[in-house]
Amino acid sequence: MPLPPRFADLKREIAESYPDFERRVTDAWAEIVKQLEETSEAIKREGSDYIPQVQFDELHNLPEETVQRIRRVGSVVIGDVVDDADAIAWKKSLDEFVSANPGVQGFPGNNKQFFQLYWTKPQVQARSHSNVLATTVWLNNIYHVKGNEDLEGVDLSVPLSYADRFRIRHPGGDWSSFPPHIDSGSIERWDDPDFRSCFADILQGNWRLHDPYELGSRLKAKRTTYKRSDESTLFRTFQGWLSMSETGPTQGTLKVFPDVGLSNAYIILRPFFRPLVDVKSPEIYDPKNWSFDISTSDFPGIYEGGGGYTGPKPNIYTHPHLRLDETMTSLPKVNPGDMVFWHCDVVHSVEREHTGLEDSAVMYIPAVPLTPQNERYVERQKEAFLEGRSPPDFGGGGRENGFVGVGGVGDISTPAGRRAMGFAPDEEVQTPHSQKSKLLAGKKSVSRISHAFRELFK
Ligand SMILES: [Fe+2]
Fold this sequence. Notes:
The chain is of the alpha+beta class and 458 residues long. The chain contains 16 helices and 17 strands. The protein is globular, with a radius of gyration of 22 Å.
């Protein structure tokens, strides 16, 4: 279904705001389509090996080419962030929590595996684990500043906590609820001027210059203009999870399209083009069979729903050149205590099948830097924590403070973890001018690494 007519006006406004738009994006579209053909071949050839895998204890000393690879792919497996035994114990504790509290909310209702719980002890402990926070600081620092953006109150080296859920997926079953999609913002990617400016290079036809790690415009982007529930309102540099089990391909793990800049370029320009042949025809891949067209309100992959808009949810018909049936790549095998992160623009899905013999269990823990917007969210989240109710972004969980074994402030295991939850502010990181100069200097020097970060790596 096309979106309301005002979105045709939006397309025209965008086209008029960039010089020589039609010619530039038409040239870019042909180049992107060609690049997708080449990149898809490489992804298919390498499979899960296409996704970078590093160890936690080498994060401080990774070769630049590995960091560049992580930037390009947009997803990474980080091994041994937490001891295997700790992660396994958390899984056992979560199983016990769920057994002791049959009234917890989750789905599927008759055999709960995805839980709307935020404040169990293992979750509170994992979010405040020193290595988990250090990992998120490392990821936050992949982002950088290009212009003269207002960085007052921003520090990439001070991690914040975002309370999300966990899943304990049993073998078998057919999970169809998580087809390819992008989190954190839907039509807002085009509709919100600040969010749209994250993709300005693409809209100017300079798609190869697009940098998904540019901080400035990300800080102001509005991800939820329409106030959909269960949609993250704060700025996450990477979404992520901590594995509590051994899980490999076909065992219910995550799949990603492993080239975030390229998928951004294609998805952002897709609404400005219309296929001239049937989408199921082999001719669909030829850019000559596509025409520039801004006359409709159609934004393929964006749907009305949930009181706002959902998606992008690309599929093989709306976005054929992504060749998602072949390029959605399962993560390599992970062990308990390993973490996985993917940039907030990455197209991702969850495997439908789980052919393994054991549960596939993860806690969702993203990378969140200190920003004024994020800090405000954490303040509200803290109140929810103290009252044992669902965090502000999540409506469905209800109250948890009546459950047996729910976590409390005492389960936050580190000072940095307390700071991340909005408790006991660290005075050293509250000097906006020094933060600004550190960020603008852009040096990977020790002086740029804040007190909190050094503490985490001790
Ligand atoms: Fe998602």
